[in-house]
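Justification of resources, computational component.

The compute hours requested in this renewal are based largely on the per-chain cost of generating structure records like the one below. Each record pairs the submitted sequence with a full structure-token output. That output is archived, and it is also reused by downstream analysis tasks.
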Amino acid sequence: MYSLTEILVMFAIVRVLQRIYYLLNGHVQHGRAFSPPHELKRWLKEKGIPIAQHRFVCKNNQKIELRYRRIGTGPKLFLLANGVGTDLFMWLPVFKAMLRRNPRLFTEFTLIAPSYRGLFGSGGIDGSVEASMSCLAGDVLEILAHCSRNSREGQGFDSIVGWSMGAQVALTCVTAHPHVADKLFLLNPSGGRTLHTAFQPFVPIPYIGKSVSSAMRALLAALRRLTFTVAWKRVKTATSSIYFRLFLELFSLLGGFPPELGAYFEQYLRDVFSSRAQTRGLLDLILSLDDKLPDAAFLLEHKSTVVSSVSDFLTGVYHGMFLCTAMINATFKPVLFGSHFLLLEWPDSLAKDVLELLQSTKKHALR
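The structure output for this chain reads:
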């Protein structure tokens, strides 16, 4: 038997070797001037891919203003349900790889990229936001109605591509409204009650889940209170310092991540601390991850691809395995050397899997 120290050393060696692999296969170290959002904007302009911003007020009685982006001109719509707190730029390496494989991608499809309520300007007109999986699923319906109002009646999304929280939103939505989408691509998904299984990558630990969830809820509540104090501003300053940048670089190296991941993490934190409301919205949405999925979510007939990372400490690999065991028409694709950020680690492989689903046809008609 190996000791814990030996296991950790072997894991670190494997991840450093993975970093070397990235460097040998074209990944480059970006300087501090690199900005993922600006790079996404530049790339879209260079490729002549149109992007339009939309916002509207929901028709329900919550008076929520929702925002989404529309990218491309294709007749088929596919929704990108992002990870919690992340913006569209996180998918830039995958978009580049997808376009290399299919230069007509954005003339065949139109990508709909919503912002979750409470983030990036989406939220309650009176400043209040109710965060739950059912509310987020309802927002998907509102966005579909708005973005397809000039299309044929009853048109749904060809596919929903959901990462992390987005996968949970997708499952919640299509369970209640199966015809919202024909196909599902679930990246690092959770089967619900996510806080109960956090930091348990290989197997959920019996009797521990409730304690983990309670501890995380208490921590998130404490952090939310801090957003009203001067401590929030001090943390914001700390996350923009050179010392924190060096920490991200070291974390990226020891974690085996691509060298540019530090720049993506840094931009993510800039977004998190762009305003106190944004920080509070993120914390509220994280709490919604502990919502339970309906039992019917595990019996969906949608053609689905599920990709999970074996070393994902946020949503353990067993979530994807269980979903594929239960779902009628799902394919499971585990990734041995990957984390929760596969879209940055293995964009070429992920692009191939997404395109295969987008370009496939349904095997079974939905009942």
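Strands lie at 51-57, 64-71, 76-81, 109-115, 123-124, 157-163, 181-187, 303-309, 330-335. The chain has one domain: 36-358.
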